[in-house]
Amino acid sequence: MRHGKKINHLGRKSAHRHALLSNMASSLIMNKRITTTVAKAKALRKYVEPLLTKAKDDTMHSRRTVFSYLQDKESVSTLFGEVASKIADRPGGYTRIIKLADNRLGDNAEMCFIELVDFNTLYSKDAEVKKAKTRRGKKPAGKKAEGAEGSAEAETPAAEKPAKKTAKKSTKKEDKE
Predict the structure, then answer these.
(1) b/e per residue, 107-125, with b = 16+ CB within 10 A?
(2) What is the pTM of this model?
(3) What pLDDT score was predicted for residue 127?
(4) DSSP for residue 118
(5) What's CA 106's distance to the chain center, in Å?
(6) What is the mean pLDDT of each run of 10 residues along the chain (177 residues)?
(7) What does the domain layout of the chain look like in residue ranges?
(8) Which CATH architecture has domain 14-119?
(9) Helices (DSSP H) in 11-159: which residue ranges?
């Protein structure tokens, strides 16, 4: 029985598992979002959230501690620079796991996104409000186009436009004869 055994071994020995989580954490910090399985994402969340908490305190000791986990200078500098400034006010919960609808083709494993919460603009309150899409249908007959008030096309009646098209068709027929 597995009473009290909380770690997910992910089918790997401990050294392989630590290398996997280190590489995934570096990728997450550099790319802000990665696609992986749900089991790996849950293990990665436990691995990376304490590192993100340590990054809030920019000291030499915390940098060395985080480097011992990540083993990548670029991801450590990104973590302490760009990421730490965004998560400074957040008390925890730095990552979000979003399950995907499709499972992996080879082994039918559940797939998901794991992302840093503050870097996704879709869910943030300060996100830009997108304009509603306009329809491309006909405008009501009584209204003129807003931007084309002075142009010749806005003033021409609708009856003249089809006449021009038919005139072009008649010239093509005459050319053939």
Answers:
(1) eeeebbebbbebbeeeeee
(2) 0.69
(3) 56
(4) G
(5) 25
(6) 92 97 98 97 97 97 98 97 95 96 96 94 67 71 57 52 52 54
(7) 14-119
(8) Alpha-Beta Complex (3.90)
(9) 14-31, 38-55, 60-70, 73-78, 84-86, 152-155
